[in-house]
Each structure stands twice: as C-alpha cells, then as structure tokens.
C-alpha cells in the first residue's frame, strides 16, 4: 500500500506500508548535492549534512545521538551528486519519537561556531582519508575527467580550502535557497499507518517556510580527458567512463542488464576474464550512474603496478569483444534474472524502499511503480541489450583516470 500527500507549503510525503514487519525507515530527501554547487560552495552540501547533527535549539550533539540510542533507533545521512538524505530506522512502536528527533536535527540545527570548528577538522580528515583511498580517488578523478570541474565532476567532499573557510552565514544562505519545501520529500517505508506518517509530517514540516524555489541550471559539458595522479602506493588503479543513458531513458533497464553481464558480478565478463582466468586483478567491475541529463558507464580495476599494462590490455580486450560480439542468450537471461531478483530483494528492505520511493517522488514527482519496473525488465529481449551495447561503448567518447606508482596513465 502506497499513499502520497502534498503539504500546503509544497513538501511531498510518500508512505509505503509494509505490513508484517516490526520496523520503519523514515527519510527526508533534499534535491541538492555536489552537482548544484558553485565554485565557492564546492563541498557545502556535504558539510551542511555533517553540521545538521551538531546541535539544535533543544539538543546538543550528544543529546541528539543519546536520544536516538535511548529508543534503539539508528540515524544517518549521506550526500550525493544531486541528493542529500537524512534518515532514521526505528521499531514501529518508536516511530513517533524517531521522526520527531529526525525532524529536530533537520529543521532546527543551529550550527554552533565551536561545533563548526570541530567538524571542519572531521571533514578535513575525511578528505585526507579519501586521498588515502586510491579506489575512491581514482573514481573521483574519473568524474572530473568526464565532466570537468563543474556539476557531476565535483568531488562531494569539496576542496580543503573551501571547508576551512565555510561560515555559518554561508551554510544558512545555502539552506535557505536549496532546503525549500518544494525541494523536499519525506519518505516512510515499513510498518506504519499512512495516516500516522502524514500526521507526523504535517506536525513537523507543515510550518516550514521558504522562498519560492528556483532550480539552479547545470551546464553539462562531456569531456574525454585522461587524468593521472602518481602516488607511491602498492596498487595501480585505473578506470574508464563511457557516456550512457539518463535515468528517464526507455533503455535504462537494457543498459543495466548489459552492465550486469559486463562487470556487475562474479559471473561477469570482466571478473571471469581479468581476475579468474588471467589473475591480473583482485578487484575489477563495472557500474552505471544515471542522472537527469546524462549518465556514466564506469569500468574499474585495481592491479599490481607490474601487471598494470597487461591488466589494462585484458580489460580493453574484454570491452572490444563485448562490443564486437555482444552477449549470449544464456548471459542475457542470467543478467535479466539477476536484475529482477535485485528489485524483488529490495522490496523486503525498509531502507531500500524508503529511498526508492523517495527518489522517484523527488526526481519525477511520481510514485515508484514496482510492477511496471518488473514488467519492463521481463519484456527485455536479447536484441534490446545487443542494441544498447553498441550505443553505450563509444571508445571515442570515453574518459579515463589512473592513480598509482606508474610512469604514465592508462589510456583506453
């Protein structure tokens, strides 16, 4: 059972009732993230996400976390390229208290100066940790190679210089512009009565005010750069990015099945050839990212520097053969069934459902239709996937990134 409600101020509420469970996940989704930031704001969405937990008009940071713990609830948040999400999971009998606490930190955070100073140190450590995690560093570099320094090319954490300089005034100004009622969705999934969920949303968010929301334009410029960061580390990391479809594309399901066969699991082409048969990499995979205006098909490998050239050659050979020969009927059926199973499994997870239904409402202002999604996957044919292979593996349009102790970057 799924219900929706739009509050008078524009906040949208969606509730997925999942009877038979004993818990509920609740999330507040905001349509903002790294892709919407300007240069002087780079990293501000993520920093605000951190600061929301650092004290409100009623609670200190410790008192907030202690209050969640007192009812056995879990609370967290994340920032993406075009989404920031704050969420909590509780037993159904503590849903009222959990949502009140989640709303408190979301609506009434005060960003105390002393907490800002401390949290800047925390985020700077996170930036340092990212710098010391070469897989993440390689994929961040790849985004910049594909999109430049703007929109989807931005690192979510932002540069250290920006983080050091953020002020309370900047944070409140950004929230005023981006955390507007029309740009917020509240999503519940689990064993909660829709009427109660909507009552809670109205109680906490009904009085939220904001200026009329005006979306920022993103000027997407696709690039085919090759970026390289030399680091004295034990492994070499390289990745390629190909342009792919948007999240609204009719070919989305076909592309996702294609990716499953290429590098989405232990039976995928990349894993079998590069790791299992040749032993050239421990980690090798592919995945897709889909946005409103564009998308990326990413292929990644982490290898011994002495085997980097051989591993890169093996990856290229797999990609070329994949594009030239396509896939077998058996691979197609296995990939399609894996996609269907993944969607079915997510139906049994309150956190996944909160996010799936919340995103669909935030991005498209519509209710996620599970039956339609399953029908689209089931209707796919081998020809559909063969067609998108040719359209989505454009070697001339690919970007690449390399991190490691190599003399030169890996190129496609």
Please give the structural blueprint.
Layout: E1 2-6, E2 12-17, E3 23-30, H1 44-51, H2 61-70, E4 74-79, E5 84-91, H3 95-107, H4 113-131, H5 134-147, H6 160-165, H7 168-178, E6 184-190, H8 194-205, E7 226-230, E8 236-243, H9 252-263, H10 269-277, E9 283-290, E10 295-303, H11 308-325, H12 329-346, H13 350-364, H14 370-378, H15 382-392, E11 399-404
Parallel strand pairs: 2-6, 7-11
Antiparallel strand pairs: 1-2, 3-5, 3-6, 4-5, 8-10, 8-11, 9-10
What does it look like?
Helix content is 45%, strand content 18%. The protein folds into two domains: 2-205, 2-Layer Sandwich (Cytochrome Bc1 Complex, Chain A, domain 1), CATH 3.30.830; 226-404, Metalloenzyme, LuxS/M16 peptidase-like (Cytochrome Bc1 Complex, Chain A, domain 1, 2-Layer Sandwich), CATH 3.30.830. 44% of the residues are buried. It has a six-stranded mixed sheet, sandwiched between helices. It has 412 residues and is an alpha+beta fold. The mean pLDDT is 96.
By CATH, the superfamily of the largest domain comes out as: Metalloenzyme, LuxS/M16 peptidase-like
CATH topology of the largest domain: Cytochrome Bc1 Complex, Chain A, domain 1
Count of separate DSSP helical elements: 15
Structural class: alpha+beta
Number of domains: 2
Uncertain segments are none
The whole-angstrom Rg is 22 Å
Which percent bin holds the helix content?
40-55%
Proportion in β-strands: 15-25%
The CATH class of the largest domain is Alpha Beta
Number of strands: 11
Q: Please state the average pLDDT score.
A: 96
Tertiary shape: globular
Oligomer, anyone?
single chain
The major β-sheet equals: 6 strands, mixed
User: How many angstroms does the end-to-end distance come to?
Assistant: 48 Å
């Amino acid at each position: 059972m799924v219900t929706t409600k739009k509050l008078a101020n524009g906040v949208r509420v969606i509730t997925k009732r999942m009877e038979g469970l004993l818990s509920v996940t609740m999330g507040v989704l905001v349509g903002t993230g790294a892709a919407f930031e300007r240069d002087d704001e780079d990293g501000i969405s993520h920093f605000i996400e951190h600061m929301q937990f650092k004290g409100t008009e009623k609670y200190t940071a410790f008192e907030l976390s202690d209050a969640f713990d007192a009812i056995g609830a879990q609370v967290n948040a994340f920032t993406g390229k075009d989404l920031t999400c704050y969420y909590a999971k509780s037993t159904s009998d503590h849903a009222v208290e959990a949502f009140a606490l989640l709303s408190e930190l979301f609506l009434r955070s005060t960003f105390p100066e002393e907490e800002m100073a401390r949290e800047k140190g925390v985020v700077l450590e996170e930036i340092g940790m990212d710098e010391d995690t070469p897989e993440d560093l390689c994929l961040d570099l790849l985004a910049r190679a594909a999109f430049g320094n703007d929109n989807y090319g931005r690192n979510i954490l932002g540069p250290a210089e920006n983080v050091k300089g953020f002020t309370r005034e900047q944070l409140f100004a950004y929230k005023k512009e981006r955390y507007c009622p029309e740009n917020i969705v509240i999503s519940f999934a689990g064993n909660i009565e829709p009427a109660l969920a909507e009552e809670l949303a109205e109680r906490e968010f009904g009085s939220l005010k904001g200026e009329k929301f005006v979306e920022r334009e993103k000027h997407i410029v696709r690039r085919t750069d090759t970026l390289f960061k030399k680091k004295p580390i034990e492994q070499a990391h390289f990745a390629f990015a190909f342009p792919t479809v948007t999240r609204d594309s009719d070919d989305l399901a076909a592309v996702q099945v294609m990716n499953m066969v290429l590098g989405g699991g232990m039976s995928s082409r990349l894993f079998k050839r590069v790791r299992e048969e040749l032993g050239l990499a421990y980690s090798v995979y592919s995945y897709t990212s889909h946005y409103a205006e564009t998308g990326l098909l990413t292929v990644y490998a982490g290898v011994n520097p002495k085997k980097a050239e051989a591993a890169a050659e093996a990856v290229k050979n797999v990609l070329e053969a994949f594009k030239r020969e396509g896939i077998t009927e058996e691979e197609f059926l296995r990939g399609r069934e894996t996609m269907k199973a993944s969607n079915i499994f997510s139906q049994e997870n309150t956190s996944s459902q909160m996010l799936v239904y919340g995103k669909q409402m935030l991005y498209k202002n519509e209710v996620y239709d599970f039956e339609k999604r399953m029908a689209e996957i089931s209707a796919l044919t081998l020809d559909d996937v063969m067609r998108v292979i040719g359209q989505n593996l454009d070697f001339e349009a690919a970007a690449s990134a390399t991190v490691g102790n190599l003399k030169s970057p890996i190129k496609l």
